[in-house]
Fold this sequence. Notes:
By secondary structure, the protein is an alpha+beta fold. Helices cover about 30% and strands about 15% of the residues.
Amino acid sequence: MTxxxxxxxxxxxxxxxxxxxxxxxxxxxxxxAAPAAATQPASGHAEVQRALDNAVAGSGAxxxxxxxxxxxxxxxxxxxxxxxxxxxxxxxxERFRIGSTTKAFTATVVMQLVxxxxxxxxxxxxxxxxxxxxxxxxxxxxxxxxxxxxxxxxIFNYGxxxxxxxxxxxxxxxxxxxxxxxxxxxxxxxxxNAAGPYFDPGKGFGxxxxxxxxxxxxxxxxxxxxxxxxxxxxxxxxxxxxxxxLPGSExxxxxxxxxxxxxxxxxxxxxxxxxxxxxxxxxxxxxxGIVSTTGDLQRFFGALLGGRLLPPAQQHQMFDDPVDTSVxxxxxxxxxxxxxxxxVFTQELSCGVTVWGNxxxxxxxxxxxxxxxxxxxxxxxxxxxxxxGLGVLTNVLDAEFCPTTSR
Length: 407
């Protein structure tokens, strides 16, 4: 996919965890179901390897990795480097920031609490966080947990606040990259923005990280434990995700990891590339703060899609009634041909096949973790540069899930 740099920056602006995206009009009627992703792909992953090679050669991405799980086992491929200074190659065990892929983890914890009858999807925000979402056009009595998870609440995304956003652009990023935020501070920024709500609750789709901060605060209120503790107790520990953790305000990535390279939202046609590996990601927390690996993401999404983390009723609620993300009939700008469920989305690929999962972006890291509805055929991929555009990730998905005569 060939894209001007300004367009790429716009896509990053839409997908990166510290910002949201443009706001959709009221949701349209559901689109016809697309074919499910194949669970028995043709032999070999040569096309995926070519897509990785092309991402590095064609877009200038520093390095890219992909891991596939299917009926034959696991395959890992890589291209480019983890470190442009040393030339160190990408490795399978590397940890990286997963951006908004975090939302699938957060939503899973919420759905487990629903299954345990500790809360309900139709509970209001006001019930759990009394007085927090009030004023400036908001009424927490009218916003439900379900609306938080599928981005139909209308709540403004704190990352789109102009004053907040400018702290993460260009040289200002260096001045503020160790800033630490509490969840309450960021929720307040979102709710206080002069723009007010995107739309009335339940009347549209507006991607907003503020939603997931509120969801995590509800998790803490319902359990009496921190969001991080619940993540570890319910998902990270039981699944043995040894490369996955929530760093909080910890700026360095633990263990082996690629350098994360970013343009810091530069609009220059030939932007300077910065090493953005070290930063405090308290600005993304439950909306995009997790660090993980391709293998751990495979294990998590395999368990989630395969029905091993939720009972059937909650599995149905999470996946089977997604919100249309199109804007006046046009594809949503961050990822085309998608519908958003509760912390997960579906994407229709070029061949009509639909995959399920989530993706995310933050400074210097773009991630996809998608698969067949039954979780038996999965692909996780990461690129350690944020200027190549979403096309390199979609191309890898197409290479794996869309059969061709050459495979």
